[in-house]
């Protein structure tokens, strides 16, 4: 759904050549800051037949996956009510998962926890309502702020870190390698910055910090779900102790649901050029099964061709991330999800395979397939741009009247016809 901005780089004829990329590092020697990467999200912890998901297959079948993101962690109203999906991460319910995690980590695979996603509330609870945000808020402090707004004294109300401390302790207890922040609710940029800074302070520069914005949010003035500009955040989220000088090591950009298109390299080329991003910091997020999103699924053969093209275009290409693991490859004829991961790894890490010539496009970015195509066109006919129409319908979950109101409030529609 990115804005149509031509790439400013030259075109090279796309004739096929046999290229020999350098052999990839083994997992045990790979730096967490080194591209390429192959990442997969795990949110559903059973297979398509309802059996517990065995994550160790990612290791034993030599899929070459580098990072696994467990999803999704939620900060709830009760500070002690933190949940992985709907269950406390310390419950015995997750014993098999944590055993799998230890095996993956012992094999050199980094395991992160993704926080947020479509369920709202985690980030406002961590950050409170103050701007700039400070990670020292709990229910009592939020109540104090409400009292202050209404001229009440709020006696006896104290400030502590009830929400953040539970998050911090959960990360420590399970020995996670990092956090992936998926902010799909509007917060001030200072909230994201304060949380990144606090995690960096508490866990050090070896702790991996990533974020998962929709791809369009990484374009200049592009619509997104987080409520802030990622270029602004990235310019402020710096660290002299991290190898790339940035708190966010890379972005798992969502190229589906109308936010981007992974069927060709055009969308990624435009994002890198117009957004002025380093390609090793932008990992292309895709659906690994059509059922895992509203639109934008790319079949494996097309996806692998896109990845190979981007590898040639950008030697430091950040590579790919799949959402989500449990049914990966089902639409591509794979019987097991690890088979899809291993197939994608062939294009991410493949040595001695046939590669295309560099082909940095200057084509306008086509409209990415949206979840609500007819309604999207209706909003475009009313005067909205395609990216903003997609944004409004994603936020409203397909509600046309609400989408129209959102566009009016965002000043992306002048007025509705009588």
UniProtKB/TrEMBL annotation:
This is GH18 domain-containing protein. InterPro entries: GH, Glyco_hydro18_cat, Glyco_hydro_18_chit_AS. Keywords: Carbohydrate metabolism, Chitin degradation, Glycosidase, Hydrolase, Polysaccharide degradation, Signal. It comes from the Eukaryota. Residues 1-19 form the signal peptide. GO terms for molecular function: endochitinase activity. Residues 36-351 form the GH18 domain. It catalyses: Random endo-hydrolysis of N-acetyl-beta-D-glucosaminide (1->4)-beta-linkages in chitin and chitodextrins. It comes from Meristemomyces frigidus. Transmembrane segments: none annotated. The keyword Hydrolase applies. GO terms for biological process: chitin catabolic process; polysaccharide catabolic process.
């Amino acid at each position: 759904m990115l804005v149509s901005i031509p790439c400013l780089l030259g075109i090279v004829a796309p004739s096929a050549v046999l290229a020999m990329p350098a052999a990839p590092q083994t997992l045990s020697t790979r730096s967490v800051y080194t591209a390429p990467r192959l990442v997969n999200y795990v949110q559903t912890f059973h297979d398509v037949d309802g059996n517990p998901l065995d994550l160790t297959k990612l290791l034993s079948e030599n899929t070459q996956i580098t990072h696994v993101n467990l999803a999704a962690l939620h900060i709830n109203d009760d500070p002690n009510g933190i949940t992985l999906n709907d269950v406390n991460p310390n419950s015995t319910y997750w014993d098999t998962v944590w055993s799998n995690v230890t095996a993956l980590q012992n094999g050199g695979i980094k395991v992160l926890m993704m926080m947020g996603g479509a369920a709202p509330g985690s980030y406002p609870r961590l950050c409170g309502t103050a701007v700039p945000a400070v990670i020292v808020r709990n229910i009592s402090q939020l109540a104090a702020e409400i009292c202050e707004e209404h001229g009440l004294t709020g006696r006896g109300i104290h400030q502590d870190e009830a929400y953040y401390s539970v998050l911090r302790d959960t990360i420590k207890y399970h020995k996670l390698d990092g956090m992936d922040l998926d902010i799909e609710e509007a917060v001030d940029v200072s909230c994201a910055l304060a949380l990144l800074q606090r995690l960096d302070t508490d866990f050090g520069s070896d702790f991996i910090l990533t974020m998962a914005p929709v791809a369009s949010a990484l374009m200049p003035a592009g619509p997104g779900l987080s409520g802030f500009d990622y270029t602004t955040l990235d310019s402020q989220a710096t660290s002299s102790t991290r190898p790339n000088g940035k708190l966010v090591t890379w972005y798992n950009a969502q190229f589906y649901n109308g936010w981007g298109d992974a069927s060709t390299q055009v969308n990624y080329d435009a994002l890198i050029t117009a957004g002025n991003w380093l390609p090793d910091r932008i990992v292309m997020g895709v659906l690994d099964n059509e059922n895992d999103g509203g639109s934008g699924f790319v079949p494996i053969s097309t996806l692998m061709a896109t990845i190979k093209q981007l590898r040639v275009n950008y030697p430091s290409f950040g590579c790919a991330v799949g959402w989500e693991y449990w049914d990966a490859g089902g639409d591509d004829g794979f019987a097991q999800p690890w088979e899809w991961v291993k197939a994608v790894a062939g294009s991410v890490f493949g040595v001695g395979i046939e590669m295309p010539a560099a082909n940095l496009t200057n084509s306008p970015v086509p409209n990415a397939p949206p979840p609500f195509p007819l309604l999207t066109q209706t909003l475009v006919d009313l005067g909205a741009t395609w990216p903003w129409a997609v944004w409004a319908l994603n936020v409203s979950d397909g509600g046309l009247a609400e989408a129209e109101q959102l566009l009016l409030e965002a000043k992306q529609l002048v007025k509705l016809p009588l």
